[in-house]
């Protein structure tokens, strides 16, 4: 998907609606921008908090594993 945007005199731009909808972005979501050596800019969405990740890897019936066991 390719769309155009314009940079304002204040250095601001609007992420096009199609992109926002495709990424599920909403007001208040955070993102990071990384400038690559070839001048490509990579934008990463940071809309999940660490608390939303709790239990993500849990599967019913699976035994808990300690951090020490994971490090082996």
Supply database-style keywords.
2 helices; alpha+beta; 2 strands; 15% helix; 72 residues; 17% strand
Describe the structure.
It is built from 2 helices and 2 strands. With 72 residues, the chain is α+β, with helices and mostly antiparallel strands. It has a two-stranded antiparallel sheet. The longest helix is centred in the first third of the chain and has 7 residues. It is elongated, with a radius of gyration of 19 Å. The N and C termini lie far apart (43 Å). The mean pLDDT is 85.
Low-confidence stretches: none
Order of helices and strands: HEEH
What is the overall shape?
elongated
Number of beta strands: 2
CA gyration radius, whole angstroms: 19 Å
Give the biggest beta sheet. Answer: 2 strands, antiparallel
Q: What is the residue-mean pLDDT, rounded to a whole number?
A: 85
Offer a concise description of the structure.
The chain has 72 residues and is an alpha+beta fold. The chain is built from two helices and two strands. A hairpin with a 5-residue loop joins strand 1 and strand 2.
Topology:
Blueprint: H1 17-23, E1 30-35, E2 41-46, H2 67-70
Antiparallel strand pairs: 1-2
């Amino acid at each position: 998907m390719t769309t155009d945007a314009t940079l304002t005199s204040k250095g601001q731009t609007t992420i096009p609606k199609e992109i926002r909808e495709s990424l599920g972005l909403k007001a208040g979501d955070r993102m990071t921008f990384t400038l690559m050596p070839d001048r490509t800019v990579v934008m990463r969405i940071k809309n999940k908090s660490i608390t939303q990740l709790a239990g993500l890897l849990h599967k019913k019936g699976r035994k808990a594993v300690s951090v020490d066991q994971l490090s082996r």
